């Protein structure tokens, strides 16, 4: 495809060929396997919303290696569609284990699901080792002098 056609096609469908915001090879059937962007420095943020309702379709350990947040919001309450995904929660552990620094991370689930409860119980020791705290659905969050239930954080 000539360069001007490639340019037009990317403008007509922004986001196509992107995985976690990274340009991928559009000819590949598996975008995750064809990441061509060299590893850059990680991005540090206060709060990150795990993409796609914590679905395993778009979030992998690479996301957690690159996007280092003090707080991750885990949405999703649709077990039939794999939301939240156990694989994504495990990817958080894998990604965080490669940070090289033991910064405190707080995971904020917006729903109390069987997947998050089982993951919490089965990986509790690893969470403690990695300095990851999971808020219970009955927890409260204080932001800008306002207090509200943690499960109300939804975007």
TrEMBL record:
One of its GO terms (cellular component) is microtubule. InterPro entries: MAP1, RibonucZ/Hydroxyglut_hydro. Residues 1-37 are annotated as: Disordered. The gene is Map1a. Residues 22-36 have a biased composition (Polar residues). The lineage of its organism: Eukaryota, Metazoa, Chordata, Craniata, Vertebrata. Coiled coil: none annotated. GO terms for molecular function: actin binding; microtubule binding. One of its GO terms (biological process) is axonogenesis. This is MAP1A protein.
